[in-house]
Amino acid sequence: MMEATIQFTVNGQRRSVTTDPARPLVEVLREDLQLTGTKVGCGEGQCGSCTVLLNGRTALACQTPVAQADRQTVLTIEGLAAGATLHPIQEAFLAQGALQCGYCTPGMIMGVAGALLDKPQPTAAELRAHLEGHLCRCCGYPRILDALERVAELTRRITP
Amino acid sequence: MTTEPRTGGHSTPDPTADALVLPDCGISRRSFVQWLGAGLLISVGAGPALAQRSGGRGGGGARSVSARVHLGQDGRITVLSGKVEMGQGARAELSQAAAEELRLAVGQVTMILADTSVVPDDGTTAGSRTTPATVPAVRQACAAARQLLVELACRRFGVQPGEVVVRDGQIAHAASQRTATYADLAQAGETAKAFERAIPAEIELTPVQAWRVLGTSVPRPNGRDLVMGTHAFPSDVRRPGMLYGKVLRPPSYGARLSSVDLAVAQALPGVVAVRDGEFAGVAAPTSLRAREALAALATTARWEELPQPSSSEIYDYLRQRAQGGVPANPFTAELAAAQQVLRQTYRVPYVQHAPLEPRAAVAEWEGDRLTVWTGTQSPFGYHRELARAFQLSEDNVRVMVPDFGSGFGGKHSGEAAIEAARLARAAGRPVSLTWTRAEEFTWAYFRPAAAIDIEATLDATGRLTSWYFLNLNSGGAAVDTPYRAGAARSRFIASNSPLRQGSYRTLAATANNFARESFMDELALAAGVDPLDFRLAHLEHPRLRAVLEAAAQRFGWRERVTARQPSLGVGLACGTEKGSYVAACAEVTIDSVTQQIAVRRVCEVFECGAILNPANLRAQVQSCIVMGLGPALREEMRFAHGKMLNASFAQYRVPRFSDLPELDLHLLARPDLPAAGGGETPIIAIAPAIANAVAHATGTRVRQMPIRLPEAPTA
Fold it and tell me: N or C terminus: fewer CB in 10 A for chain A?
């Protein structure tokens, strides 16, 4: 196997990894960069647990060869909070108790982050549509919907 | 490749608390002991023998106060339990239990769960036992600790225990204006000695009327780490020099490995390949390299396959293998005298738990000492299992269970830990092993398939005169009817399952209740009585009646059941298991073209005695209903010749956002009764309520799960 050097920006930091360019991005994040907040729930693009932002758009990191991230910008759940200050999406999930085991939570939150970049003032229903590809096996969907309501309401308070 | 030590595990706002759960992750054992403080404390280095084991079946495995409660020199309270957190809320509930009895806020309690070298064995986290067994055990120990501290303070003050008040970790004697904090008392050598005392069997617990912490909606204590992605689940644990493992799986059930050549896999850079009898696997510096090595191994493997049954013939297969045969209905007199005899068979297929985090473990050897981090509901079961598998003394094994990514009864086993340990021993380095989704669907144990026969008789007034109920293969949970049914016999008959089967949220109660509650509607129809009235006429148990009547009323059952609309139906069902009571009403619509069933609304009333954490209980009830929609409408494992045919989320559809019905939940509080667990029983009413609603809408009785109308294409 030929290795390649991938240079990209991850959570605001320049990173360089020399590796097989076919490796899924999620494995490079988790195994090389110690960013284990991004989860693997299925490896087949069916659960959304590995959702990250690639150049500001949601991407399934289990379906994205790391080569596609070369010279691009990746944001993972670890990069969402500003230091100890949670991002409002994280605050909303926490405040609404929108997690049980929490394994789907980083992917859900990054899915919402991607939806907000797509449309800054979405309705809760639009956010929900964005998350249709995300699974919560604890089936805590009602609480997650509460969190989406809260996020949608927060965005409505922002004057563009 | 990981080279940096990393601290992981459960976190609390105090960063040093990480060291408590994963003290080997870059934190020395010495610092673990130091953090806990002196005097009262176990020494971790002395091994697991010091954590008291007392069977733990009852869910409360600590004998002495110090085996359950530690008081740091700074006054900080650390509570130990062998229970695990997998999303069901044990961490919050046990923290509440401790805080309540120690007169502290929840945030002042650090809870260490499921590290077998420091916690008592509280048994498997299963059967909804944490609430009725472990919560009281923790409360007892903490109440005993509080009493000891009060006694010590009173001795200092020269006053009687009845004269002091305990609040926020401080014992105050108002008359003399003297106070002693838990920290003050922790300094005294006599405190350590006192904590070595046994927990008294009889000790007064805080009565429900005086609860300040229990009974409130305390959120998940480590929720912040979960939303930040910083909590290390078992699959996230990273160790210096760690490799990633993969295991060679047979091509079908029962296949035996006759030969495999390790050479090609081993030739790959950094790869270790192992064969030990039926076990073959690889460990490599990255998961991709491990997959390549596994593929190389697989091409050289030769297997002996055996004939295996297929899902299409499974019910006949199980019936033919019923142990001792299928006994005939003994109620011949009732059968002869009956006005009507009804007999039906219901079928429930194998389903998978599909926890979002698959089985995962990291194993690390230091000489003959084995440490594993894994997601299992049975930490001590797997502690012993690992000791047996590797012929180690139990003191040389340590199992740590970081809060993990769900279980639903599917993670009583610890296969990944044993596999990772085998690979780690061969590699001489720590190995992380996470099952793939396909492995989880194929090689994890299944919820058992069931064929359930019911025969019942009605007299001329529409009363049940006999009831004969046989569950073939899936189990005896909730097999007995809660109704007054005349001569009644209900039995579970074991069979020979071709698939590995085991527990699942509320075990066979779901299958048994599906069959029973569907059949109750069929009997009501035969008797010409409304299904609600038919049930109430045969139901004496006041708690079950209460939830049934409440659900019917909230749903508007009487008006809805008579107001017929095309393609729309309503159904109800109720049941009891594990000391709790549930009733559900469902509204379904049927697509006139595809015959697809959509559940539009569910009204469920649940009662489990006193409520320890209302928000968490509500989440569990919601979760049960929505999770229950999966096997009710879509989930079934299909297999042929020992191979799974739908081992992926693309082919095995579990509930998604779009499946969410309108939910009207009501928790009936009974603070006068002891608290029972609530994470299982709420699942048992949903499938029969849907089947009954479908029959109401269409006149077609579907007697199997998943519930599908004949015209509908299979999912």
Answer: C
Q: How far apart are CA B314 and CA B587, in angstroms?
A: 31
Question: Across chain B, what does the average pLDDT equal?
Answer: 91
DSSP type of residue B366: E
- Chain A residue numbers touching B244 (CB-CB < 8 A): 31
End-to-end Cα, chain B, rounded Å: 42
Amino acid at site B689: A
Q: What is the pLDDT of residue B715?
A: 52
CA distance B263 to B625: 51
The contacts of residue A72 (CB under 8 Å, 6+ apart) are A8, A9, A54, A55
Single-letter residue type at B58 = G
Please provide residue B702's backbone torsions phi and psi, each rounded to the nearest 5 degrees: -95, 120
Asked if the model's pLDDT at residue B30 lies above 60, the reply is no
Q: Where are the domains of chain A?
A: 4-79, 88-156
Domains and CATH numbers, chain B: 15-231 (3.30.365.10), 235-305+359-434 (3.30.365.10), 505-698 (3.30.365.10)
Of B86, B236, B656, the CB nearest to A135: B656
Strand partners, B246: B282
Query: How far is the alpha carbon of A113 from chain B, nearest alpha carbon, in Å?
Result: 13
Q: Is 80 exceeded by the pLDDT of residue A39?
A: yes
Sort out which chain B residues have CB atoms less than 8 A from A23's CB and list them: 286, 288
Amino acid at B254: G
Which of B8 and B612 is assigned the larger pLDDT? B612
Any bridge partners for residue B606, and if so which? B582, B667
pLDDT tens readout for residues B136-187: 999 999 999 999 999 999 999 999 999 999 999 999 999 999 999 999 999 8
Under 8 Å between Cβ of B689 and B572: yes
Both structure tokens of B637? 């494992």
What is the CATH topology of the domain spanning A88-156? DNA polymerase; domain 1 (1.10.150)
Q: Is B227's CB within 8 Å of A42's CB?
A: no
Segments in B509-662 forming alpha helices (H): 509-527, 531-537, 542-555, 557-562, 614-633
Q: Name the residue among A38, A90, A136 with its Cβ closest to that of B227.
A: A90
Burial class (CB in 10 A: 0-12, 13-18, 19+), B450: buried
Does B47 or B689 have the greater pLDDT score? B689
pLDDT band at B69 (very low <50, low <70, confident <90, very high): very high
Tokens of B259: 């030969």
The residue written with tokens 């986290």 in the block is B125
HSE-CB of B541 using CA atoms within 13 angstroms: 18
Q: Which CATH superfamily is domain A4-79 in?
A: Beta-grasp domain (3.10.20.30)
Among candidates B83, B373, B65, B96, which has minimal Cα distance to B211? B96
Nearest to B354 by CA among B653, B46, B12: B653
B327 upstream amide cis, omega within 30 of 0: no
- Residue B622: its chain A contacts at CB < 8 A? 139-143
Structure tokens at B378: 């049975």
Nearest to A101 among B6, B356, B663 (CB): B356
ipTM: 0.98
Which of the residues B356, B621, B658 would you substitute to probe the A interface, choosing the one with the greatest number of A C-beta atoms within 10 Å?
B356
CB spacing of A102 vs B223 below 8 angstroms: yes
User: Looking at CA atoms only, how far is residue A73 from chain B in angstroms?
Assistant: 19
Backbone angles phi, psi at B713, to 5 degrees: -65, 150
**Chain A residues inside the 8 Å CB shell of B125:** none
Distance of CA B601 to the CA centre of its chain: 26
